[in-house]
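note to self — DONT lose this again. spent like an hour looking for the file last time. sequence + predicted structure for the chain T wanted, 340 res
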Amino acid sequence: MAISQIIEQISTAPQPLYLVIGRSDYWENQILSRLQQLIPTEERTMNFATYDLEETSLGDALNDAQSVPFFGDQRVVVIQNAAFLTGMKGKATGKQELDDLTAYLQNPSPATVLVVFAPYEKLDNRKKVTKQLKKGATLIDLNAISERETTEFVRHFIQKQDYQIEPDAVSELFARTQGDLALIMNELQKLFLFCREQHVITVDAVNQLVAKSTTQNVFDLSDDLLAGKTNTAIEFYHELLMQREDPIKINALLESQFRLLLQVKILQQHGQSQAHMAQMLKVHPYRIKIASRMIARFSVSYLEESFAALVEIEHKLKSSTVNPELLFEMFAIQFSQKNT
């Protein structure tokens, strides 16, 4: 079942236990919104509570979950940052609290919806409490959402608004937002208004309305370098400086991008799938997809030398008065002259 369907069912058929694994601003907000709607507005102060385990105890949350709703039929208790489900070091959760949670999971209160948010890449499945929670709760795994599922959700959402979107516009929208669903949904509101006459979102509309972040501009800069467009890259770098972008920040983002390209190249040679790479490197699957396409003609040693050169530029930018434009121009020219 698609994640959107599971979340929709919170409103119509709420379950007593939910476990939300991973992080996604958009889906987390959707889940919390659906949970709030389960409780009438006038009852939320008493019957809707959130407990951040970085600030409070698991015991307090459990006491609330076991309490009878105050002048209402239902109570919602949300537990945030459940680090006790992982091997991470966080605020200590006592053995008695974990035993109490395990007991609660075996016999949850029928009047309470208990939701546990674990915004982590993976849980410690060796722990008894983790096994029990996974067994008894409705699982919402945000880590398992694929790029394809996100794309289909966006397309379906656009269709429900009685709009269409060009294929190239979808690609550009994802590129400019780095596949961040929360950003995509915000940008769509502007695009709907701009394209209200024809009800077709075009790539030109995306180019006009969806601003590129500094990160996206630097990705485009690296694209030019990798495509051998040296003069274009140098001109683009000059434009970024004219826009008052910080040379150290630009270089840091270039370093980050070339580090990712190098990592993807190495993992490719070890037969890793793009989905596994995204989990290992903790980046959005869209970035892995683009990186895989960009590095096809480059060797590991080529990317290693380029990354090392960017590290050296960072050192010079921080420790000398060398002109940043000159440093980048030398890097771009040397990069284009290397053998792949």
